[in-house]
Structure formats: C-alpha cells, structure tokens
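ok here's Helix-turn-helix domain-containing protein:
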Amino acid sequence: MPSKSSPRSLPKARARAAANIRRLRTDQGLSQEQLAEAAEFHRTYVSQLERCVTNISIDGLERLAQALGVDIVELLQPPA
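and the structure:
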C-alpha cells in the first residue's frame, strides 16, 4: 500500500492551490458540492484537491478559477 505524503513533501504549488481553493470557496460561502457543480466536477474530487490527495490539470484549475470568479493565477499565489 502506498504511503500518504506529508504536507511538507508535497509540491508547493499543489499545496498552495489546495489552500487557495478552500479559502476562496469558504470566503464565498460555497460548499464543496456547490463548487464542484459550478466547475462540473464531482464533490469528492474537490475534497481530494483541497486535501492534496490528488493532482489537477491546468484545464481543471482553470475551470475551478472560473467557477470561483478569479484569475487562475490567484489559485497559485502564496499566502498573504
């Protein structure tokens, strides 16, 4: 069975995207299900993204950015 990666061993861009997706989603008062529906993803996929369990393509990142009403660059910004 593969071992789970610790947050420190994950690529920084993936961890940033996960944190930014969760922050933007909660700031907008959206549930994972609502965001998933807007981006045409399954709710469990959004959950996996926010927990850094799975990776996302650039196209998928763009769909999430559009659903959140932000530029894709904002999803990769370091925390303020």
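+1. The mean pLDDT is 90.
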